[in-house]
Amino acid sequence: MPAPAPASAPAPALASARRTPLALVAVYEFALTTGMLFTVVTTARWMAGPGTPLADLLPTLTSRLVVMGLLVGAIVTAVLGPSMRHETAGHLNPAVSIGLWMLRVFPGKAVLPFVGAQLAGSVAGAALADLVWGDAAGQVGYAALAPAPGWGSGAVFAVEAAAMAVIMLIVAFFGTRPPLLRFLPPVIGACVTAVIVFLGPLSGGGANPARQLGPAVFSGSTGHLWAYLLAPVAGAAVAAALAPLMRRR
User: Fold this and answer.
1) CA neighbours within 13 Å on the CB side: how many for 50?
2) Residues in Cβ contact with 171 at an 8 Å cutoff, skipping those fewer than 6 apart
3) Cβ-proximal residues to 154 (8 Å cutoff; 6+ apart), any chain
4) Is 231 strand, coil or helix?
5) Is the pLDDT of residue 14 over 50?
6) pLDDT in tens, 175-214
7) Of 213, 234, 169, residue with least CA distance to 36
8) Residue 220, H or E segment
């Protein structure tokens, strides 16, 4: 029995791959992911870097996570909306691309180009931040994610996987209910914000391999990297397995 077909970011990306050469679509994905990671590192640099005005206005981790969460959620919403209307790339997350393929709404031939573009964009975004901000980017660890003290890689894996599973199940739910599709961009943006705000102090709150790869490489914070890379993919796989339960009779 086929899985439900979400008609949000996946459907436009699928149509885009048909109309536009796959290599060009992958370039779009690379550029979007690069921009997102540069924005994340830049925001961290100004919020938490020594001597910046925002560091005094946002003195606590919670306040910084709220700002970061709202910013990244807004980016996801802004990218997803046009991608639905204009059939452009805009996954920004390897686990999303793989999950949509598992849901049978994204072509298998596009998975590796998209995932490669997203991971390369992650490294490029951190590199661009390093080029622009220099030592200031390093002083905030290139915004690399880190779990709370006492959290091991296993706990990080479980929580990050669960977060991604919930997001992909929401995508599947909306995808089987066309009247709700127009609400999907802000809903997914709100989910991303919630992951960052509420899971940030615990597991790190990434739910996106591309969110961590570049910052981890440049900061050297690779202790839990395998969990941050693989957990979202595992969560997407769980969602794909559960998604048929949401199909209406």
Assistant:
1) 5
2) 6, 8, 9, 10, 99, 100, 184, 188, 239
3) 227
4) helix
5) no
6) 888 888 889 999 999 999 999 999 999 999 999 999 999 9
7) 213
8) none
